[in-house]
Design goal:
The chain is α+β, with helices and mostly antiparallel strands and 153 residues long. It has helices at 10-23, 56-69, 96-106, 114-129, 139-152, and strands at 24-34, 40-53, 74-78, 88-94. A 4-stranded antiparallel beta sheet has the order 1-2-4-3. α3 crosses α4 (114-129) and α4 (114-129) runs antiparallel to α5 (139-152).
Length: 153
C-alpha cells in the first residue's frame, strides 16, 4: 500500500528555507573526539544547521513539516536565569548525511544563505567521495572552511 503520509508543498519548503534565511545559521561545527580521560584525539569538522525561537506554534508547525519531509533534527529547550527572558527552543542538525537531506530540500529556496548552502553542499559531496571520511582535508576543503568562516563572522 502507498504511503498515505501527506507530502509537503513547494510553499512549505520555501517557508522552511525562509525561516532558515531569517532565523537560522548554516555553518561548519567542530566536534572533538575525546579519550576516556578527556584528552582531545582529533577535531572533526561537520556541517551544521541551527535554528532558535520562542514561539511554540512555530515549533509545532516546524516539527510537523520536518516529520512529513522525513528530515532529522534534535530539539533542546533553553531556560534563562533571568525571568524576563522567554523559554526558547533550539533545533540542531549536524553531520554529512543529515545535512545532505536538508540541503536537498531547502537549497533551491534559500536566498540570503544560499552561498553557505552551496559551500556546505560542496563540502559534503567532497567528503562523501573519499573512501575514508576521516582522511585529512583537501586544499579545497580548507578553502571552503575559510570562506564559511568569513561569511559567518
Amino acid at each position: 500500500m502507498d504511503n498515505q503520509q501527506p507530502k509537503a508543498s513547494d510553499i512549505e519548503k520555501a517557508w522552511l528555507a525562509g525561516f532558515i534565511d531569517g532565523e537560522g545559521s548554516l555553518m561548519m561545527g567542530k566536534r572533538k573526539d575525546l579519550t576516556p580521560h578527556g584528552f582531545v584525539r582529533k577535531k572533526e569538522v561537520l556541517p551544521k544547521l541551527a535554528l532558535s525561537n520562542t514561539n511554540i506554534e512555530t515549533l509545532d508547525y516546524l516539527v510537523s513539516l520536518l516529520n512529513r519531509l522525513g528530515l532529522p533534527y534534535n530539539i533542546v529547550w533553553r531556560e534563562w536565569k533571568n525571568p524576563k527572558y522567554k523559554k526558547a527552543w533550539d533545533l540542531r542538525v549536524t553531520g554529512l548525511s543529515r545535512m545532505r537531506k536538508w540541503l536537498l530540500i531547502i537549497k533551491p529556496y534559500l536566498i540570503t544563505k544560499s552561498r553557505q548552502a552551496e559551500l556546505l553542499w560542496e563540502w559534503i559531496e567532497s567528503r562523501r567521495q573519499t573512501d575514508n571520511q576521516k582522511k585529512p582535508y583537501t586544499a579545497r576543503e580548507w578553502q571552503i572552511l575559510q570562506e564559511m568562516s568569513v561569511i559567518n563572522h
